[in-house]
């Protein structure tokens, strides 16, 4: 079979740093994955936040207008909020123009290109500023071969979107490294790419090449090396199951970690669809993954308990762990639960 090409890091977009994070007009944090991810995992790169006048939600960073952020050292404004469908919201344009006029480049992970806005393109051209689109996959992605690759792989999967797959992957990779394990975080979304500096925006890849992109992202490696791969979407999501399945087959995970948010019973944005039970999600994901790795196993569950107080969260982790007979941890709450999950991943 054909060899799997390695990720060409020379093609990774270079983003001017530090960042001013733009929150748009969001009224809740559900659609702020990029801003929250950068705040939590690349805090040293974030100068402050900037938002529309009607926006009351904050992610806890200092509020700075673009001119003040530039004087404080920021060199690009990152659109940290997603709109439905991934478009550049027309209500943002005036705010983005102010950032260009203040000397900042604009960085977007949206599906729509920044240059598709004549106002932004003309302003950037006039001022010599850059419009940087992260959601642009590299050229030459191959069709997947299905060839078994050396090294070990962990993929985070979910019962829905936006519930912690990226945070779980980042946390587990750092836990592996803390134990002396050679491990890389493999980013598959715009926020992960901004955090790690490399990756492939998997949901921007043409469907026939998604599995090939996953193979390209996680090539042959030493037998004791782990690639911890950021999951996308959910095989249970009516809108995004396709990209999730391609990523599952192309990554050929040895281990999956199922991610879920405590209390979430409906698919976000599609409330007529229920989220699956945890046993159902584990069973179907393992069966689908066996197409390219018959030995795949679920090491445990990453349970997002961010909405719960500490004692209630710890109690829930224990109860769910007993019911599943698997390690269950919140990667943002270090402790013996997370230690058990890491042990199970590496077993």
Automatic annotation (TrEMBL):
Residues 143-336 form the D-glutamate N-acetyltransferase-like C-terminal domain. It comes from the Bacteria. Residues 60-137 form the D-glutamate N-acetyltransferase-like N-terminal domain. SUPFAM superfamilies: P-loop containing nucleoside triphosphate hydrolases. This is DUF1611 domain-containing protein. It comes from Steroidobacter flavus.
